[in-house]
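Re: that chain you flagged

S.,

Sorry for the slow reply, it's been a week of failed gels. I finally had a moment to sit down with the sequence you sent. For the record, here it is as I used it:
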Amino acid sequence: MTLQQGNLYPKLILEKGKWHKSRIEMNILFDDIVKDNYGTWTQICKRHSELKEINLLGTLEPIASENAICGCIGCQNKADYYLDFY
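Prediction finished late last night. Pasting the structure tokens below so you have them in one place:
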């Protein structure tokens, strides 16, 4: 599955005592997203895991496999984390 939307992601912000929806630019595209019994996830390298946008997408868990490749488009680095999407 390819995520080609990587554009806008809704976020709630508190402003003047009221919650408002905000949008931030997402510049991360994935070419390897898995949807199975465990949920929707991909694997990413350490460099991509450090992007601030990643925390908005889901949670990171260390990866045990030595053979996994980063699921971000154009990246061939070894994957260090699973990214479980919210």
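What I noticed first: The radius of gyration is 14 Å.

Talk soon,
D.
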